[in-house]
Amino acid sequence: MDQKNDSGKGIHLSTVQWQSLTDLYRQLLFAHEDFYVRSYALQASNALHQIATDPSVPTTMLRYGIHEILEITKHQLPDSLELMVSFIDFAYTKVGDLYEQIPTYDIGE
């Protein structure tokens, strides 16, 4: 979703649909984690490693993998509070895992 379109405003989803949406964003974060871990493996090519060290990659993960779903759920408060807190906990853990697994990992500013 585009942030300029007031992400999440006017979206009416069932609890199951909200859970499915947050599950998709969880999968996106797992994919980012997998990409980083594999790109820093000894078997990874230099080209793959160069992509992973691009400063825009972690920023992209933050923008589309974390911030976007938080914006969507923010507009659905208080109904989305439980899912939002759960996702924040999950995202915090994933970013922490990346800091531990990838010494040069930086989420950007």
Task: Describe the secondary-structure layout.
Blueprint: H1 15-39, H2 46-52, H3 56-74, H4 81-101
Structurally, the number of domains stands at 1
Helix content range of the residues, please?
55-70%
Shape: elongated
Going by helix content, strand content and strand pairing, the class is: mainly alpha
Q: What Rg is obtained from the alpha carbons, in whole angstroms?
A: 15 Å
β-strand percent reads under 5%
State the separation between the terminal residues, measured CA to CA: 22 Å
Oligomer: single chain
Please trace the helix and strand order, writing H or E for each element. Answer: HHHH
The average pLDDT value, as a whole number, equals: 83
User: Ranges with pLDDT <50 over ≥5 residues?
Assistant: 1-5
What is the number of beta strands?
Answer: 0
Major sheet attributes = none
Number of separate helices? 4
